Amino acid sequence: MATKGFMLYLVTAFTVAIFSTFIISGHNHYTHKYHIQSSNTLNTDEKTWPELEFSWRIVLATVIGFLGSAFGTVGGVGGGGIFVPMLTLVVGFDTKSAAALSKCMIMGASASSFWYNLRVPHPCREVPILDYDLALLFQPMLMLGITLGVALSVVFPYWLITVLIIILFLGTSSRSFFRGIEMWKEESILKKEMAKPRETFVNSRGELLLDTYEPLIPREEKTPMEIFTFNLRWKKLMLLVAVWAAFLVLQIIKNDLVVCSTWYWVLTVAQFPATLAVFGYECVKLYRESKKRRSLGNTESVCEATINWTVPNLIFCALCGVLGGTVGGLLGSGGGFILGPLLLEIGVIPQVASATATFVMMFSSSLSVVEFYLLKRFPIPYALYLMSVSILAGFWGQFFVRKLVAFLKRASLIVFILSAVIFASAITMGVIGIERSIKMIQNHEFMGFLQFCSSQ
């Protein structure tokens, strides 16, 4: 019921915001021909690259970047909503360059988090902590959504992008916060009931409570190398890399083509078969395994998600994956602002949700980094420095928070961190967006949708 209410909130708010664009654009249509280039701040080609030198700005950006990367990777959201405002307001980059550098930071933090998680055992099952099935389900749709988001960033007015981001982030942060409260209460019950090991206990929804910090059956201790090799599934990893490479090749070729030319649209459409092939393969696999287990009376989950893999649920996941990628393309993030909360919503425990979300973001962010590099969209010295900061932050953030979760036996801490990062991103992106939207209104700039081909 809560999920349906949340989706109704998003659909209603998005519909009202988009339709209001047509009303607003009707009042200032006469200014279109004079301000078409300045109406979308995200797409300006003016580069503002400050020099990399020691100053209070670099110190403050380092602190914010370190904390944003640490908490962002732990929550599984990356932190793009914090990095972009930091790079524009504190350091002084233009918005497009800030989005490119934000991707570099997300890639660095995600890669270090992935490396760290390969050495972490699953908290309660004899399976990898990275859920490769969920990664294969969401990664193709996420990358397809990023392509859509980049296109919409050209068409959508800046004020509308700001409104949609605020609506989405406030909704997901609130939903994650209440989810964290529910988990905190259940953990409190669990800690009390653990003194009665022979009794069976359930939560308010009638679901069996399990200890997500210690295995139900004592396991043999594994060496770090054994844990590493167990978590690393080469076949599924290579399939994910193949999807990433296919998107990368298509994007590189598209960059050399005239926008809206015949071959441009051919390559754009060519992204769909590869995406749907991998997504469809994983959907069929999850559906068949889930159906087979239900027919045998086996209630164990096919993967980490506790939902039944029915056709409506698979369609829902596909739409959420595309939505997450679209937000990533609009914002300059890795799409984790949707994927992180979504994994929790479908029943994935926080430790696995965090590890899997950052794993998927590693592919989506690295794809964007390569594209931005080919376009010479960010300065290399700044990128290397900020990536170094985020790599260290991603590793130590995972280390300290997971140690704290294991000590307190409170996985809900990860959910609260997720909610806090998304809420902070809503505030920072909202403040910047509102400020620039006011300037656009004062300058009588065009506030409606732009033509895709003529705005490139």
UniProtKB/TrEMBL annotation:
Keywords: Membrane, Transmembrane, Transmembrane helix. This is Sulfite exporter TauE/SafE family protein. It holds the Pfam family TauE. One of its GO terms (cellular component) is Cul4A-RING E3 ubiquitin ligase complex. Belongs to the 4-toluene sulfonate uptake permease (TSUP) (TC 2.A.102) family. The lineage of its organism: Eukaryota, Viridiplantae, Streptophyta, Embryophyta, Tracheophyta. PANTHER family: CEREBLON, SULFITE EXPORTER TAUE_SAFE FAMILY PROTEIN 4. The chain crosses the membrane at residues 6-24, 58-86, 158-178, 237-253, 265-284, 314-340, 352-375, 382-401, 413-434. InterPro entries: TM_pro_TauE-like (IPR002781). It is a multi-pass membrane protein. It is found in: Membrane. GO terms for biological process: protein ubiquitination.
